[in-house]
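subagent[fold] <- orchestrator: predict structure for attached chain, return tokens only, no commentary.
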Amino acid sequence: MFILVALLVLGVLIFVHELGHFIVAKLSGMPVDEFSLGFGPAIASRQWGETRYSLRILPLGGYNKIAGMEPNDDRPNGFTHKPLAARIGVILAGSLSNLVFAVLIFVILFSVMGTPTASNANLIGDIMPKSPAEHAGLQPGDRISMIDGRQTSTWDDVASNIHSKGTSPVTLLIERQGQDFSLVITPEYDPSSKISLIGIVPTTVWLKQGIIPGMQSGLQESYDWSAQIVQSLVQLFTGKVQMQDLSGPVGIVKTLGDTAREGLRYLLILTGILGINLAIVNLLPIPALDGSRLVFLLLEGARGKPINPEKENIIHLVGFAVLMCLVLMITYNDIIRLFSGG
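subagent[fold] -> orchestrator:
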């Protein structure tokens, strides 16, 4: 069930991306021979007007067969005969559609559904595995009423009292299902945060904003994730992130399936993040991606004449083959992690 949800999310993101290309091509007067979701043999296909709409068996992408973009297709109203600005618009439209879709998701989350925010209540929301709290027997839903005889009515009180004790044992007064009892726990020093922790997480509340604040927060959230994804790509190309740390189709489907179990809100958050990721990655100047076609168009604008179509098609073909090899390598790593529990 959750695998189907994951595939549906990927299908929606691919549909939004290809729909952007499709709409701008149509508005620019370019015939679109086929609008396809997926690759390989067609599961379903239907002709409406000049365009055939297809659903294919491999849900790993999609494409628009736009007039003039295939070799030996020199129709006068095709891609190559349209103004440079129109062609750039068609190439950019897929990624821009994904970005707009992601912003819309985040705006809806902030304005209508709410976003997860740590509560300041003195209730435990979760217990970290192999932590002092887990070893002591604390459970989600426990209320911490006192620490070493001091009242803790908020999460800030709980955190400050634990942090101030260092690695000395602390006595917690716990309320669980109407009964009170005490536990003694020894915090552990965490080098990353440079404070002492027992491994507890506060409960989560979903805060809603108005439409205008929600739009502002949605735009800011989209910008923050965009910056983080760009930073990760820079780290990848500079060697700070290893290839084996990447996730491919199998890893993404697993993550989506796991997130779907947490509920619709978390699934929408991940969908927005993946939409931004798809938009940015597609604009990389890698042959077979939109970014590569954009580079050729910009070179045409600078030179005043197009690159030789045969040479460009060879570059895209070789790039596509390399890209498929890369996807297979990442997918192999995904499968190894999946079966090894990583």
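orchestrator: received. Logging for downstream: Residues 309-340 form the longest helix (32 residues). Residues 119 and 204 are 5 Å apart (CA to CA).
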